[in-house]
Write a structure and sequence with these properties.
Blueprint: E1 4-5, H1 15-38, H2 42-46, H3 56-75, H4 107-127, H5 140-162, E2 185-188, E3 191-195, E4 211-215, E5 218-221, H6 227-235, H7 247-255, E6 264-267, E7 270-275, E8 278-281, H8 293-302, H9 310-318, E9 319-320, E10 325-326, E11 373-380, E12 400-407, E13 424-426, E14 435-436, E15 440-442
Parallel strand pairs: 1-10, 11-14
Antiparallel strand pairs: 2-5, 3-4, 5-15, 6-7, 7-8, 9-10, 11-12, 12-13
């Protein structure tokens, strides 16, 4: 049986429908940016809520700056609107901790600027040829900017989680469990599959090219590790036992006096957490979130397992053994629905494990997309044949052992910015991001066929 990857239906759209699709994606991203920035007053918009994050107003204007650079100036060939602010909003010029001291656009100026840029960008979209140039083929540049804005929306959502004060964001609670009894683990058969993509028009450079990779049989958790399971590690003294931690992880743990996931607090009646200004009991059946790579790695060791490698994670998420095809998403090739994944800030927390049976992979692995980003045991690097596009600073400058790969997206990730091939990366110490994990292990001799 030949192995192959699925083709994105986007490639079948007419030019008119492709423009409409790109415009809708841009509009959805901007609506979310507006919610996140209108939720607070001007003082909070310009305040730095954590040295780990930019002021919200910086993110907003940076979104506009990137859109101007790529869509208005490059694709559209228009005159610059604000060349004087290019350096202020270059993410590589100024560290996040230093950005509040810059002469940034104020809230009213930032909103006016991004509005003017968007009007120009939509004019460009109406006229730009969507073929003949790699940057505009299948509206790639518009998809790239959509994803960029949605990524900053998730960053701004993380800033909201770090802010002090009463809740300002509101959303319905996520669904509860809707599956019956399912196995705790799934055996993923060994053999080759197609990893990465060549067929996905809006895929970013680090997802390319598609390549065949052979993965040895392994076992992976059906669901992400839950708060209840993680609490068992806490109660067993896991944070005080050196044997579960890597040297780097133990050093970081001790230096920063970390004793639980970020935002957790031990009370007399159990564990509580702060979630977007709400103080609540930690829900046992939701995936654990706000844990670093080091914490995930230590839990896995305590459980007698390990973190999955990135190829293992992707095979569990995409490979259909019945057809030999690598799907776009675990459930198939269609875009995510509300029945398949917890995405897009529709809810303000992960859903209980078992809440999305329609989103399971062909092998029976659940909630691989949405809810929590999942740490893998793999350093961030380019695939064989990698080529930076359209600029080195998106991916290539981050390659190496300093960054670990995360997969799958979170409840704060939009569908435009996650798919079965999408790759996120961060330092292994990061805890403010919406990251959790699931475990994997090698196949035992008794399980081999």
């Amino acid at each position: 049986m030949p192995i192959r990857e699925a083709v994105n239906p986007l490639r079948e759209l007419s030019r008119e429908n492709l423009r409409a699709h790109a415009a809708e994606a841009l509009t959805r991203a901007r609506a979310r940016s507006t919610v996140l920035t209108d939720a607070v007053d001007d003082e909070e918009l310009t305040r730095q809520h954590s040295r780990l994050m930019s002021p919200l107003v910086w993110d907003l204007a940076h979104i506009g700056s990137q859109e101007e650079l790529w869509l208005v100036r490059d694709v559209g060939g228009r005159e610059p609107l604000r060349p004087d602010i290019d350096e202020l909003y270059d993410a590589f010029k100024h560290a996040r901790a230093d950005r509040p001291a810059l002469p940034l656009l104020g809230p009213a100026q930032a909103r006016a600027y991004v509005g003017e840029v968007r009007a120009k960008a939509l004019e460009v979209l109406e006229k730009a040829p969507l073929e003949g140039r790699r940057l505009t083929e299948a509206a790639f540049a518009f998809g790239m900017i959509t994803q960029h804005e949605q990524q900053h929306d998730e960053t701004m959502l993380a800033t909201h989680q770090l802010r002090k004060g009463d809740p300002v964001l509101h959303a319905p609670a996520p669904p509860g469990r809707r599956t019956g009894r399912v196995p705790a683990e799934v055996l993923v058969p060994g053999g080759p599959f197609v990893m990465g993509t060549t067929a996905e028009p809006w895929a970013l450079d680090n997802e390319r090219p598609a390549h065949e990779i052979d993965v040895t049989a392994f076992v992976i958790d059906t669901f992400p590790v839950t708060n209840g399971q993680y609490t068992e590690f806490l109660e067993a003294g896991g944070y005080g036992q050196r044997r579960w931690w890597s040297e780097a992880g133990w050093d970081y743990l001790r230096a920063h006096e970390i004793t639980a996931p970020r935002f957790w607090q031990r009370e007399q009646d159990g564990w509580w957490r702060t979630r977007f200004g709400v103080y609540e009991r930690v829900p046992a059946e939701q995936p654990v979130v706000h844990v670093s790579y080091y914490e995930a790695e230590a839990y896995a060791a305590w459980a007698g397992k390990r973190l999955p490698t990135e190829p293992e994670w992707e095979k569990a998420a995409r490979f259909d053994p019945a057809t030999g095809q690598s799907r776009r998403f675990p459930w198939g090739n269609e875009e995510p629905s509300t029945e398949q994944a917890n995405l897009g800030q529709r809810h303000l927390s992960p859903a209980e494990v078992g809440a999305y049976p329609a989103g399971a992979s062909p092998l029976g692995v659940h909630q691989l997309i949405g809810d929590v980003w999942e740490w893998t045991g793999t350093d961030f690097h380019g695939y064989p044949g990698f080529s930076a596009f359209p600029y080195r600073e998106y991916s290539e400058v981050f390659f190496g052992p300093d960054y670990k790969v995360l997969r799958g997206g979170s409840f704060g990730t939009d569908a435009a910015a996650v798919r079965g091939t999408f790759r996120n990366w961060d330092y292994p110490i990061r805890r403010q991001i919406f990251a959790g994990f699931r475990c994997a292990r090698n196949v035992r001799p008794s399980e081999r066929s």
